Amino acid sequence: VAALVRVPSRFGSYEIRFGDERLVGELPDRCWIITDDNVRRHWGHVLPKDAPVRSVPPGEASKGIDEFERCLEWLAQSGADRRSVVVAFGGGVVGDLAGFVAASYMRGVPYIQAPTSLLAQVDSSVGGKVGIDLPQGKNLVGAFYPPQQVLVGQAFLRTLPDRHIRNGLAEVVKYGYIADTELVERMSGRLEERLPEIVRRCIEIKADVVAEDETEQTGRRAILNFGHTVGHALETYTGYESLLHGEAIAVGMAVEARVGERLGVTAPGTAQRLVETLRQLGLPTTSHHLRDVEDLIDLMRRDKKSREGRLAFSLLLHPGACKLIEDVDVRAVEAALLES
Amino acid sequence: VAALVRVPSRFGSYEIRFGDERLVGELPDRCWIITDDNVRRHWGHVLPKDAPVRSVPPGEASKGIDEFERCLEWLAQSGADRRSVVVAFGGGVVGDLAGFVAASYMRGVPYIQAPTSLLAQVDSSVGGKVGIDLPQGKNLVGAFYPPQQVLVGQAFLRTLPDRHIRNGLAEVVKYGYIADTELVERMSGRLEERLPEIVRRCIEIKADVVAEDETEQTGRRAILNFGHTVGHALETYTGYESLLHGEAIAVGMAVEARVGERLGVTAPGTAQRLVETLRQLGLPTTSHHLRDVEDLIDLMRRDKKSREGRLAFSLLLHPGACKLIEDVDVRAVEAALLES
Lengths: 340, 340
What we know:
The structure is a homodimer. By secondary structure, chain A is an alpha/beta fold.
């Protein structure tokens, strides 16, 4: 383990360590591990033998308040105390759920993120946003609660199905378009072969943004939300059944680039270029649900960025730059949905 | 409103304001009020007319994860956003529940404590400890999340039943014995007549202790837990049915003073004096459940102060001073339970 990224936080900084699957074999004593059934099947053998393990069903349904409660009762029943360490060993669902469990159990115990999916490695495991869903929307309940460390094991990507690699690449595309023109330019050909360097670059971008605005006070961190206003609405609307998170935000980015162009915020041609990037990677850029304009806009009004029902979007200025725009005209959103 | 106490916090300091019921009429716009059915019946008329109000059944049962979920869904359905302010208008149950709802909704919205019970005014509304219960124990889930302000309306004590005044006086006795010999000495005769000055003194003590150790890192804040290791175990064991919180910690203080004397930590005679103080105020100092030694000790091992199952107690040195003692000999606890 040579490479490290350090993320500053209001509760003390933490390290991101890169390595192979052995990272997870070296967990500290008194770890309580939360994982999902798929990850456990592929990688359960690398975990310390005597650690308690709770495995949840894969998928967004495990991010409800019921599984949150079951995890908390499991910790209490198995004798976890304030010096116990919760480990999130899995994708974004496991990381968000286990992180909020750690944030809440006994008013907060330490936790380690050990992300196994590309999406979790490049995005959700870094930055301390943890949480669960309500029927009314995704991630509506949670905390800003940084991990003690993040262990990025590149080996875990080997057992990911192609669809889940593409799912993570949607977030990679996001990083390029919001913050790094060079990353955008390199986004052709077979990205998979360059994954280690790409993962690291995405984490560096995220760490920089989080360092500037850890708890979303200034709007800076909101740029990481590009594509997510529409994407989250689509996920909530479709009940997390048909679209993976990355697929929903791929569609969301395409729509939001068009919103930006309509408002004159985003440079003309950006949406077209973004759509081509996404298509080349095999990601969706539209959905027939976009026609249900009223329902989706209702959901967007409940987005955490919105204030008193006014729509807010993180919009591209051009490939490589993004900005939070509050009080967006609903007509631009309606038109972009219908155009996409 | 002349008198103010200011409490420092890692998220910025906050004010405690003293006054009458009009304090609550001057709440800011966009308040979402959580209260209980008793408080609403007596004092609902002082609330701002157009604020959304959610009233929960009185009692500890409302501090479960089910009511937590219902409050969160109520906020989401009624359009609360990150600029909304949650108001906890009620006793300790409402304050702990509403505080954790505010800490978790959209990863944290501001909240105001408006405590209406003596217990909440002197103790639970100050210091930012919020949370809910699990079947395995009280306050096992929660956050350190300071309020935006605390509004202490002395008028609200007028409608409290005598038993609930005594309930709060148990915490007043605790403050005297852990931190203020003068307060101990004044603890005779009719305390009710001197409630305003007593409430203020208790809040000052709490603010000082919290300022030194907001998130329970050093053991200093644990002195506020005197009587609570046994008291919480008793509450959990009896299912929160027969004993109010103050009654349980009155019994708990009596037992823990005896634990301290047995260990040579607490000056001889302290337990006897404490028991006399409690009896004079009409508070219980024993319970037939104390005979169920094994069950209670099992519950104490799950206390948040315990580490790897070793018992930890905040024990008096003498009236006016207290200290966290870790790894307490279980035999001293068994003997003190049987003696009480």
